Amino acid sequence: MDQIATTILSSGRSAVELALFILLPIMIVMLSIMRWLEARGLLQRIVRVVSPLLRPFGLTGLGVFALIQVSMVSFAAPIATLAIMARNGSSPRHIAATLAMVLALAQANVVFPMAAAGLDIPTTLLLAIPAGLIAAAATYYAFGRKLSVEESAPPSAELMPEADPEHGKLLQVIRRAGSDAWDIAMGALPLLVVALVAVNLIRLTGAISELESLLSPLLTAIGFPQQTLLLAITKYIAGGTAMMGIAMEQVQLGLLSAQDINLLAGLLLCPLDVAGVAILIAAGKPVAAVVRPAIYGALIGIALRTAGHFWLFA
Predict the structure, then answer these.
(1) What is the maximal distance between C-alpha atoms in the chain?
(2) I need a surface site. Which of 26, 98, 164, 267 has the fewest CB within 10 A?
(3) What is the structure's pLDDT at 164?
């Protein structure tokens, strides 16, 4: 009983420290940049310039906006974009391609805080974006080829946030970003606490240690650290934020190095997990209806990212 109480308290302390001292300040900075670009209209210009280049991958202007959101804000940020696509009559095929890309990209709410553990952010993003585009193309042309391409509204119905000069003043931007970052950090905290407690209690049973011992020779043979199994179980069940908490703890204990973090980034830093999919498909029934081909496409992108990180960091 004492071990359980100690595990709950230590897990809660780790979760609070992660949310308040790592996730919150980094998200304030990143959201301030994004909100300022949005308020000045620069983000909309970027979308308009880039969207014609990405149409061959099955993406529309809103798909480009979703790419920027997940890479620079949070895995949950594209929910609004997917909801707009579901409402404005975007074709199921385009929605599936956009969802696949989002699921295969590197999520900003984990990527940027993981810099504290030695993650190479530029390399992670440079590998993730092409992989996300390939995931979108694989879904659009292969896994989702039977989905309709008919739009129930013209392309002009695509809505993106407009420039807002009244909210473009730096102090107002920072305040709005701080409020949004606080909501993200506080929203992640309960799930983070529960996930860390659950994983650490499972570790107390010794089940994960037994599996790690059995699979250790295989993981070592292919060049992955022994802690890969624990991190993968945590990530794909409890989500990326929970995995980040475990990874940070492992780094502090000296069980993972910066090289290990970069090696595993392609496999672990993406929104494709039980929690992530559940949150994203809440954008609407048209999104939930195309989740299966989107997941298949996302797996292609994640496999490519995993191979890329292995080639660079193994």
Answers:
(1) 62
(2) 164
(3) 53
